[in-house]
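Re: the 567-residue chain
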Amino acid sequence: MAVVVLVVVVGAVLAIVTRDAAAPDAQGGATPDIAALAGPLADQTLVWEACEFNEDGPPIPGADTSNVECATIQVPRDWLNPDPELTWDVRISQARNIDPADSDYNTTIIGHPGGPYTSGLSFSTAIQLYTPELRPTTNYVSFDQRGLGQSSRASCEYQYDPAGGPAAAAQAIGEACSEHPDVATMTTEQAAYDMDFMRLLLGLETVTYIGYSYGTWIGAWYGTLFAENIERMVFDSATDSTRDSIQHNYDAAHLARDRQFRLHMLNWIARNDAIVGLGTDPEAIWERYFAATADPLTSLAAQSAWTVVSGSAAFSSPALYPAAGSLVASIIAEAEASTAPVDPTELTARIVARTDLPDALRAIADERLALLSATPEPTPGEMIQGTHDYVIEFTACTDGQWTQGAEHWADFHETTAEVAPLTAQLGLLITPTCAFWPTDSKMPELGADFPETLVVQSELDSMTPYEQGWAAGTGLPNTSLIVVDNESIHGVFPYGTDAVDLPVIEFLLGGDRPADTIVAPGKPLPFEESTYESWWPLDETGAPRDEPQFTDPTIAAETAELSVGRP
């Protein structure tokens, strides 16, 4: 069996090496020589010590941390033009189970949780928990991506006049940050080099990689740049990395969010009238919801309520549909009972008070309500100053050129609001910082040597919409696809069914990827014993179909009748 390793890379450079000599253009060429780029820093010794995990990325419940240690490595700030005097720190963790020299050793897996907006340091323990079949012969690595957690950070200062309009802040941030030399190194491409340097420092020839959400995007960069150093990859909840820019995923998520709301969440609410109390017709619930929140101030209160109770989390995990259903019912009830003039803050408080929430979300909601009430109004004519350190924007804006200028985005948002009213109400149709961030970067050109890859995607995922995952699973070289019908979870594996999990585990153990697309049945939603059709039934190819406005929520799912085993 071939030795497989998944690694987090760290490195540093001591001698200046030109991009042409050791770091070929991202659009093609030989695999970059990471050791030559790093120079003497390739000889650094990893000093392992006890881990201290950040509050924004603690180990998940049930994860074993007894075999986990952490180390800090130095990497060049700019792998494409390394300077021995300019380095960043990258913090890594390793859950070690076996010596790579052991004859039973199978692989080391590096995991990326996505984002990138929180610490990924503890994610090694999550992947270890997810794959008990692999653990005896596998080590696990994860890291704080540059700019996050305990790794080196970068930020830029900006200021703007709020009288400049709704895009003023985005423009000020984009123009300031796109010119900042440190921010310019906080890119997906640089992080991909970091990962391969981790492989080198861990003494591994090849690696395996598992990435979720944005982790699939950085995985595509990594797989394209360093294909010969990667044994295999799993992309879960995938972006369409056949595109030059990640803008396409962000744009598609608006429509997908409303699709999930209409076809999946409202269907569940309609089937559970005995719990939610809004009737059995999803279209009637939809019409009643938007009629009740048609007034701008009432709509603002609804937006605040979704934020305060962490309602957006239900779009990542249908386990929270009961809380979301209670929120929808509360918004309708309080909005319909309100008389003009409406005080948005007071209405938000009433909505939140009557919403049935788990204890953890209730505590968060109480804290957010207090902050909402204490938010000061800006002083007219006063310039607003700030510090921006959002790595998720640093990477997004440099991962391919976004459409520039406010005019395009005003038109785009006007058009989108007509077909995605919930997204508009939630305040998500805002001009992106990337609209004022020019770049010549784009996804590297995919080659025939792209690593063996398996994509896992749920049908109603709205954060990485289904069309994105399907395009990656069918468009990337050497890649197969598993889709889960009538499911909306963002982050599928481990799913808890053999149809999904067994092919993934087999693949990670060194087996072949499925020869054909696997269409797996979704699991029942909360309080239900059966799975129901949400969109049109998927056929054996999993190809996306035209989207209906509403569907009958009582139709039983057909996917179980399909062949879901491996060929």
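Confidence is low (pLDDT under 50) at residues 1-21, 561-567.
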